């Protein structure tokens, strides 16, 4: 099963060979050389793949096909990292389940629990000026750095 990327976004992710079986992310400058060497000396590493369907029996059938294909093409799986028959999982940093795609809370908990800063660098935040005027005032020359309640509220807004 192939998860397709929207055609308007494909140029942002990789350069693809015509056949889906040979889709390999490549740097632009090495595309021609890498395509020529692909079958002779290039190793391709797959980090993750997911097999899913609506029923348990169909899932077993599809999993069998995928594992057979891995064996036929000499792909080696690290079974210590394999997870079978799960109802949810992490894919590219997102939690995927029957409820849909959600942000993995463990990835953002650290951001939510950050203490108030002792300094500010404006270029870190996109759209810094919008709704964050108290933080912008902290950057004015020759003013005392006073992180008061309006600054705390603006900082909390950025974290959320």
Please characterize this protein's 3D structure.
This protein is mainly alpha-helical. It folds into two domains: 7-104, no CATH class; 114-159, no CATH class. It contains five helices and three strands, in the order H-H-E-E-E-H-H-H. It has helices at 31-41, 56-72, 105-112, 133-137, 149-159; strands at residues 88-91, 94-97, 100-103. The chain has a three-stranded antiparallel sheet. The longest helix has 17 residues, at 56-72. It is elongated, with a radius of gyration of 24 Å. The two termini are 36 Å apart. This is Retrovirus-related Pol polyprotein from transposon opus. InterPro entries: DNA/RNA_pol_sf, Retrovirus_Pol_polyprotein, Rev_trsase/Diguanyl_cyclase. It comes from Mucuna pruriens (Velvet bean).
Q: Based on helices, strands and strand pairing, what is the structural class? A: mainly alpha
What portion of the residues fall into strands of 2 or more residues?
A: 5-15%
Query: How many separate domains?
Result: 2
End-to-end CA span: 36 Å
Largest β-sheet summary: 3 strands, antiparallel
Uncertain runs:
17-35
Helix content: 25-40%
- What does the average pLDDT come to? 71
Largest beta sheet: strand ordering: 1-2-3
Total beta-strand segments: 3
Shape: elongated
Number of helices: 5
Question: Gyration radius, to the nearest Å?
Answer: 24 Å
Element order, helices and strands?
HHEEEHHH
């Amino acid at each position: 099963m192939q998860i397709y990327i929207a055609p308007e976004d494909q140029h942002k992710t990789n350069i693809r060979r015509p056949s889906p079986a040979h889709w390999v992310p490549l740097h632009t400058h090495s595309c021609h050389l890498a395509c020529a060497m692909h079958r002779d000396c290039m190793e391709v590493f797959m980090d993750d793949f997911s097999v899913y369907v609506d029923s348990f029996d169909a899932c077993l059938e599809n999993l069998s096909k995928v594992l057979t294909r891995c064996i036929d093409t000499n792909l080696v799986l690290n079974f210590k990292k394999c997870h079978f028959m799960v109802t949810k999982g992490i894919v590219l940093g997102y939690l995927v389940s029957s409820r849909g795609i959600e942000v993995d809370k463990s990835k953002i908990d650290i951001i939510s629990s950050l203490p108030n800063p002792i300094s500010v660098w404006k270029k870190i935040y996109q759209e810094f000026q919008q709704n964050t005027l108290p933080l912008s005032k902290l950057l004015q020359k020759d003013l005392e750095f006073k992180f008061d309640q309006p600054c705390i509220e603006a900082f909390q807004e950025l974290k959320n």
